[in-house]
Design goal:
By secondary structure, this protein is mainly α. It is built from four helices and no strands. The two termini are 37 Å apart.
């Protein structure tokens, strides 16, 4: 009986060792890398959210500027309907100066719209780079998870082998060890055979 207890303790020790120490360094490295990837993904998502907010502001500003361009174009068109030369032949200098000022404002607004469009393109490119980086990190995380599953399956197989070995050993012991009452039954059967 004591030998069976020792053998059971040995199996228990091997199972504990498998659960605690099987590929321990690899598991620790997986945990560390998983934490790093999680933090890197958080930074990417935060940066992406900030860029999206910046992009929305740029779009809003571009819309406002384009509305101003349309308004000034309408004002220029309305102003152009009146001639700088009056009906009596005089040149209306204030009219000409106003037209030049509106043309200058129009040009400045168009340059501003173009500048904002360029900023929008750069923001979109930065967003794309962040999205690409996020996808790479997510792919790295999936690969890490796949390798972790492989490691856990390996650990399960090792545990299963230990359990099967323990079950086999237990069966062999059961077959070799007579049960209480079996000896008497065997003896009675023998006696009955000899008595007849």
């Amino acid at each position: 009986l004591e030998a069976q207890i020792e053998e059971g303790e040995a199996f228990r020790g091997r199972m504990h060792d498998t659960l605690v120490n099987h590929e321990r360094a690899t598991l620790v490295a997986h945990k560390r890398r998983s934490t790093e990837l999680g933090m890197e993904l958080e930074v990417i998502v935060r940066d992406r959210d900030e860029l999206e907010a910046e992009r929305d502001k740029i779009l809003e500003y571009v819309d406002e500027m384009q509305e101003s361009v349309r308004a000034i174009e309408q004002a220029i068109h309305a102003h152009s309907k009146n001639s700088a030369i009056s009906s009596d032949g005089r040149v209306n200098v204030a009219h000409a100066k106003k037209k030049k000022r509106m043309d200058d404002d129009h040009e400045m607004l168009l340059l501003g719209v173009e500048k904002q469009r360029n900023a929008l393109s750069e923001t979109d490119a930065r967003l794309q780079r962040l999205n690409d980086a996020r996808e790479r990190k997510e792919d790295d995380m999936k690969e890490l998870e796949r390798r972790l599953v492989e490691l856990l399956v390996s650990q399960q197989k090792k545990l299963l082998a230990i359990l099967q070995e323990a079950a086999h050993t237990t069966r062999e012991l059961d077959e070799r060890t007579p049960r209480e009452g079996e000896e008497e039954a065997f003896a009675n059967r023998r006696e009955g055979v000899y008595a007849s």
